[in-house]
Amino acid sequence: MAAPVHNAVVTCDFGVAGHPGRDYRAGAGTPVRATLAGVVVRVAVDQVVVESNAIWHIYDHLAEPEVRQGDTVETGDRLGLATGPHLHYEERVTPYRAEDRRSPRFDLHPNTRLPA
């Protein structure tokens, strides 16, 4: 498991004032990485969704998604670049509706090495 951005600093946590995910400080151009290995199930203008073990990992506020629907990604693979000033990260369990959100559980210690 990996944090979606290197040296992750949480700027807004899940559930604060109804917030549906976790926001991480990420300036424009910050690489965004997969928290777990899985299959890319959706790519939009500013969003990538990776499915892993019946969990959707949703990455919002991407300036330049670098993966395509159907791609397989490994933990730590680069998904794209953040628009800044933060990355919104969310987890949903099957059947993946808005009400199926849960507090994100897939972070690593900030000193974890990620691929270049």
UniProtKB/TrEMBL annotation:
Residues 95-110 have a biased composition (Basic and acidic residues). The keyword Zinc-finger does not apply. Residues 95-116 are annotated as: Disordered. Keywords: Signal. CDD domains: M23_peptidase (cd12797). InterPro entries: Cell_wall_metabolism_enzyme, Dup_hybrid_motif, M23ase_b-sheet_dom. It comes from the Bacteria. The keyword Transmembrane helix does not apply. SUPFAM superfamilies: Duplicated hybrid motif. Residues 18-93 form the M23ase beta-sheet core domain. Pfam families: Peptidase_M23. This is Peptidase M23-like protein. It comes from Kribbella orskensis.
